User: What shape does this take?
Amino acid sequence: MAPSPKTAVAPEGAIQLPKTSESPTLLRIRHSMSHVLAMAVQKLFPEAKVTIGPWTESGYYYDFDHPEPFTEADLKAIQKEMARIIGQRLPLERLEVSRAEAERRIQAQNEPYKLEILAGLQEPITIYTLGDGWWDLCAGPHVANTAELNPRAFALESVAGAYWRGNEANPQLQRIYGTAWETPEQLEEDRRRKAEALRRDHRRLGKELDLFSIEDEAGAGLVFWHPRGARMRLLIEDFWRQAHFDDGYELLYTPHVADRGLWQTSGHLDFYAESMFGPMAVDERQYQIKPMNCPFHVLTYASRLRSYRELPIRWAELGTVYRYERPGVMHGLMRVRGFTQDDAHVFCLPDQIGAEILRVLNLTERILSTFDFRRYEIHLSTRPEKSIGEDQVWELATEGLRQALAAKGWDYAVDEGGGAFYGPKIDLKIEDAIGRLWQCSTIQLDFNLPERFDLHYVAADGSRQRPIMIHRAIFGSLERFFGIMTENYAGDFPFWLAAEQVRLLPVSEGVLPWAETVLERLRAAGVRASLDRSGDRLGKLIRNGEQMKVPVLAVIGAKEVETNALSLRTRRDGDLGSVSVEALVAAAGRANGERAGSLRFPEEAPV
Assistant: This one.
């Protein structure tokens, strides 16, 4: 079944990529609210210096240089002052001023950050005034009057640290986040969504379900997979490998480090050095821990001369890479310094591009739908102004991407000029259970690395030609995908994927011997089962199992021993009553084989 993208389709199959998913009205409201926030802060805290205050996808923020941390009580007072400002029905007016006039105004207010912002602006300089006195450098747009802002449809949400210009060497500021909507009902719905997102937060669930941790003693952004999480990761990896074997890929294993010269040849030292860890000296050579797997696959291709008859070549690798992320941007599994990419590279002939892209899209759909992601937003990014490669090859590659999307029948948006300098690409965002979009899969054509590494194949006429290289990832990274998946399921994983599928709950010590034999039978059949030997009361045994979100709880008492059955409770289908051990083994086997979310029993299974 084809996905149902959020993006509307134009008659020719594509639309121009919108700059934002929010309405222009909401953007004006939020941009204006950020100015109201800054004005309120400076009325209550005159010593506070303002920096920047843009709108965001779900609200707005403003950064302040203030000597004391803002407290929860401060936020309440600021929000009250904002409501008062809104109620004054103050105009927001746009003025064009000379650079000298802007500088005079800034110096009169003693706002050093505004001077630095002004230095980077082109004339004419525009400012927006709010009421008679407060103003800021701004290009707009804004509402005409605070009367257009609903005092019951905004809220201040939190305070966080932020460095000026995002640079740790600069002063640390305080960022106040807020949200604003047109109606109180929209605000309430936003609060509900955020509460639901908090309930699904993978960092909390990862700790509660004992899946993973990030240990400060080892360093920031490095993931420790606990046994339960590691078991799930293995299941994901095994499925991924088999899906690739079935689709004509071969697997590679490549080193974690390489001579620094390799990264010079690939261009990473020229364009990516800030995101790479520093070099290490070994045997008088400089080695670099890898931020990408691509050059290793290129070297594998270049290890011998290839014939056109060998193409396409499809190679995949679960390759762990390391990238330097700034301390302020790391976030659970979503942004880490060490992660495993589900990388694959296809080396093909120019006339094979369309078929290979379609093949990748089919595989992407198969893999993502297995994890219940079936709604996507898709972008096709075309040639940017600064790029390499011949026009004919770019046109052929871009048309190959279009044809593959058309063959899938998928709607997509065109991001004109949004491709990489080395080739066009398709990016796919998956929609989760609460409507959030996550960038995961990407397919990129590359004319750069084959040229940098002087790759060739022997063509039918005996000449040497360059292959087309396709980069693609489906999960993006295992860590990030695991975090997204955890939040999508809210930790209530489908049966086939659960680290612990069945937990046996003996009601007394006397039934333990029989429970042990059931445990052995389940494990021998490939069911991930456990036996709770704690001796707790049945109510607590059930609560513990439910807290760990075990899909199936099997209660064992004297009656169950006598009838060779189990009293089953499942998270997805409730109380199933008495089920024979043989029926449970069979149902679990079917669910694992079909990668099903829950057990399915024939009518005659219960006893």
Q: What stands out?
A: The first strand starts at residue 14 and ends at 16. Residues 257-290 form one domain. The chain has 18 helices and 29 strands.
